[in-house]
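Hallway conversation turned thread

IA: we were arguing at lunch whether anyone had actually written out Diketogulonate reductase-like aldo/keto reductase end to end. Turns out nobody had. So, for the record, here is the sequence (277 residues) and right after it the structure tokens. Reply here if something looks off.
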Amino acid sequence: MTDPLIAHNGFALPVQGLGTYGFRGEAGADAVRAGIESGYRLIDTAFNYENEGAVGWGVSGAAVERDELIVTTKLAGRHHERASALVTIEESRLRLGLDVIDLLLIHWPNPSIGKYVEAWGALVEARDRGQVRQIGVSNFLPEHLERIEAETGVRPVVNQIELHPYFPQTDALAYHRKHGIITEAWSPLGRAGELLSEPVVQEVSNAHGLTPAQTVLAWHATRGTVAIPKAADPAHQASNLAAAEIRLDEAEVDAITALGRADGRLFDADPATHEEL
């Protein structure tokens, strides 16, 4: 079993989690349950995904002890004001059907609105109330991370960011390592069709007997990022999880990282300016 990644406070995450964007209704709940029974222990959702109910149903139906799982959700930008944030956190917990949320993130900083510090204070309060076990952020830049810690004295355990070979985020990864913040990668396969056809990905895949998708997920694991691929089919879920056990050599990692592009983002979502309510 691959060693987990450890945050500054000792909180640990497995090197791969199950993304659930688009998993809704009974089919979504079935996909979550299948993922847990395939071996996933980290499940990722968000208030804005509108599927916390399906995720919670899948969690409750899985043949795995609840204390083995880390269920993550995220606070939406329209609820950054403290009072709204606290009620929304309660709403997320109720939708999920959980006594406590294992990991809660602020989904985006929304800097032009400028209430992310207030939202962070609400997460701290929810943690102190015992409604949430661990707190972190998503799509935060170093200046956002530094500000919330300076104003509250609390450092996030996780920053979930866009990260894939076309956008490898080398500087952000180094910053997080220095400060004991676990890096999670959303859309870890990037533009999957194009990326998986890259000659270097194909070459490394052939060398290890992997699929191209497994190769990219192994790249994440080797770099020390938590990838959160989405997969509903149990065979696909098992294939992705198997990649978490593979380690590439330094030259292979560097060759895949070199696919990075100046315009590598999947869409115009620079956290310095992007607003997601």
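OS: looked through it. The chain has a mean pLDDT of 97.
IA: good, adding that to the notes. The first strand starts at residue 5 and ends at 6.
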